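To whoever is on call:

I kicked off a structure prediction for a single chain this morning and the downstream step that reads the tokens threw a length-mismatch warning. I double-checked the sequence; it's 131 residues and nothing unusual in it as far as I can see. Pasting both halves so you can look.
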Amino acid sequence: QVQLVESGGGSVQAGGSLRLSCLASTYTLNNFYMGWFREAKGKEREGVAAIASDGDTSYADSVKGRFTISKDNAKNTLYLQMNSLTPEATAMYYCAAFTRAPLGWWLRTVSRTDINPANYWGQGTQVTVSS
């Protein structure tokens, strides 16, 4: 059974940085593509970043150049390094595992409300950015 546990969220001032971590059950990072999505109050769900098994990555335009997704298969851990944070980044961030698909397609379809965002996702970690 796939389990995903996020950590690393918190409160930070605009311009600051945070690194989110997602501890996955064994072999998850080998068997699935991985991503992060976020949900903010009053806004639609948004795909943030995704990474394929071979390390290829893709990002939402809103975070490109500021966020970096990475993974350590040996540690079963997915990361999201977030720099130059703005108040618009305030949201609950979720780690997700999904079956092989074009990364950009997954980022776009996360916002759909008629389907699940991924095969598996965690409980989320809250990120709050103050101005």
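Update from on-call: the warning came from a stale cache, not from the record. Cleared it. Sanity check on the structure: Residues 65 and 112 are 25 Å apart (CA to CA).
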